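haha ok so turns out i had the wrong file open the whole time. this is the CORRECT one, sorry everyone. sequence first:
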Amino acid sequence: MARTGRPKAELVLGDAERDELTKLVRRHSTSQAMALRANIILAAGQGMSNNDVASHCHTTPSTVGKWRQRFVRDRIEGLYDEPRPGHARSITDEQVADIINATQSMQPIDGGTHWTTRLMAKHSGVSAASVARIWQAYGLQPHRQETFKISQDPLFIEKVHDVVGLYLNPPEQAVVLCVDEKSQIQALDRTQPCLPMLPTTPARRTHDYVRHGVQSLFAALDLATGHVHHTLHSRHRSSEFVKFLNQINREVPDDLAVHLVLDNYATHKTPAVKRWLLRHPRFHMHFIPTSSSWLNLVERWFGEVDARVLRRGIHRSVADLASDIRTWTTNWNDDPKPYVWVRTADEILDRLAGYLTAVNAAKQ
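then structure:
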């Protein structure tokens, strides 16, 4: 007599269940394990045998049989993991709430500036590992601190709409340039030669240095192309800024209007600059709000200069510093990479309003 094997539990899928299982398979957030279970049930629902389903889903017949039976018994709910046996919770919800509140609002018991897992464990009477798990679950990181500055410019909203509107919808027959100066760039030389990188050992340099003078980098980032107009000066005054404006005027075609996005530094608003603008009516100034350098895209490019040229650079003279900056910028302009602004002014203001609301609620 031929072996028929263990009889399969009858599995019939409804339309709603089939749609839900298909969504589980296609959803990016679905775990691989859950996607496999959903695929097994979808294949079994077509009348395939356990061996055929196992071959189709690249798993074993015993796994197919397990999830077939679970689905027949509990339907889609049966595909989710069941609670595993183990010890009962030793930390109550009240203890968890106390740890969270103390982390956010209380001074550490040792008089320090922030909590550690051991200090909180001593304060709350639970283990340091439990404190670490609670902090991780609620996204609390007492060891970290970031800087912030909220602009108090009375025209903050108007300026954000002006500059962001310029980014997202630049005018025709015009060029938009993000302008700023990176002043007082120091030509630094280390007191001892740097040590090269070795396997398992990073490159090393001395912590102290010798100064050889400073340079100021004037830059104007073309919003559309990523090209950077630049120049270097030993000083950072209104006269140098006017010279830079003259350079931009020479390098930008005469038939294009020029919109400059820049900050409220006093150098940009002197009588000499105002007179220059009157003589060059194709130039239009768009000032970002005070304390809002994040709104000027050229600051992102200055970050590239700092990371790629200055932070690890060795410069034994101002001339060496200027040469390295010019070389790197020339190479950038050979293959420029424009930065793309994506957020609207309303999205920025809504996010700021939400953050301020959350902060004010936490203070109360």
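The chain has 13 helices and five strands.
again sry for the mixup
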